[in-house]
Amino acid sequence: MAMASLTRRKALQLLSRYSLSLTSSKGFAAAAGSEDNDVVVIGGGPGGYVAAIKAAQLGLKTTCIEKRGSLGGTCLNVGCIPSKALLHSSHMYHEAKHSFASHGVKFPSVEVDLPAMMGQKDKAVANLTKGIEGLFKKNKVNYVKGYGKFVSPSEVSVDTMEGGNTVVKGKNIIVATGSDVKSLPGITIDEQRIVSSTGALALTEIPKKLVVIGAGYIGLEMGSVWGRLGSEVTVVEFAPDIVPTMDAEVRKQFQRALEKQKMKFMLKTKVVSVDTSGNGVKLTLEPAAGGEQSTLEADVVLVSAGRTPFTSGLGLDKIGVETDKIGRIIVNERFATNVQGVYAIGDVIPGPMLAHKAEEDGVACVEYIAGKEGHVDYDLVPGVVYTHPEVAYVGKTEEQVKAIGVDYRVGKFPFLANSRAKAIDDAEGLVKILAEKESDKILGVHIMAPNAGELIHEAVLALQYGASSEDIARTCHAHPTMSEALKEAAMATYDKPIHI
């Protein structure tokens, strides 16, 4: 009996010792107090949650801190995922209204049920965020919900969502706090009439007139959503071109495609002021180079002028972490800052502000921490604009190839000559390949097509392994598929295509 009582007391002592590491909800551990982690990740977005899971998989005791209380970051909650849900839903509506009849599918009328469309989007987001929580449990990642900031290079003070405070300690701390909407001088975003991408994903009615400030990925995607649903969309851009990172030839075709969808563009145009005193919104514009002013009226204005690193309020200055003039954290090739044990990944460091780049950063950073080797080649991070048609690209544009002075060949193939594209009556676009003239090594691939975002990965793999255009051309592609256009463009690069 005495032995049993002693055993019971020991068990209670052990339970008491570790009770601080259990949260009151969701069954997640919250590594508080004196218990050190091998890795602490501040931020639960694509970079942060992937880094946390990878660290746990490598046997490192890991805690992830997320202020939103919902994992997945901007991308999953108010970015990539909800926007793609609305892009798909709005495309289905547009197809039903404009294309189904030519395929022999007819019905008296079709209408938008906006609450149902938003509900489908919200359901997708909720399921995916819960899925990440499940992955945390599976991989034994501790999850703390709250706002974290440094108190020392090895300690993070967290103001929890429940109203308390805890200190999380770690031998290695990764900053993965992502980015925020970039504001414009004199324009106040209220998420009602002047909205960011977050507000544009949650409008309660279809605006008659939508003005988009900024002709980048996000602005064109959200403009496409509301344009398909019936809004008159005007895109105002200070620069002379849309999507400046895109190959110029492809960009021109892309802009024409959007204009055929009734999207209007005002390039080389500056927004001087925005007036919300009336029922709508009145914008005062002038040429970027200066000149006579004009006005433009809208029901809703979407500010889509880019994103800025979210690094303020984290206590980085308190521990001496160096940042550049726009707030990005300076890191070396191992993602380490100038402060021992502090690392940074994703949108808070230089490089493309893309979710998939952040994920690669997260894996490589943790591999370095674990004593392994990691690697991310920012020149081979694909970019995708998820409009219709989509545009996807990897490697160098023709302008970049010319700038470095390399002799090169160009091979192009239009989807108008692709049998699958013709069969489904969706043949707008092309594939363009750039290859070094002497070696035939592929330098860049650019695709405009309905599913360009899926087709581009064959090209990413080719560039990753230093393939030639002939390598792709001599690889058997299933028929009939859209991917045959990539094969034909490769044939056109080193020799001649068959079907044009």
Can you walk through the features of this model?
- The protein has 15 helices and 21 strands.
- The protein has 500 residues and is α/β, with parallel strands linked by helices.
- It has 3 domains: 206 residues, FAD/NAD(P)-binding domain (3-Layer(bba) Sandwich), CATH 3.50.50; 112 residues, FAD/NAD(P)-binding domain (3-Layer(bba) Sandwich), CATH 3.50.50; 106 residues, Enolase-like, domain 1, CATH 3.30.390.
- The strands form 5 sheets. It has a 5-stranded mixed barrel with strand order 1-2-3-4-5. The chain has a 5-stranded parallel sheet with strand order 7-14-8-9-10.
- A hairpin with a 5-residue loop joins strand 20 and strand 21.
- Helix 4 packs antiparallel against helix 5 and helix 4 packs parallel to helix 7.
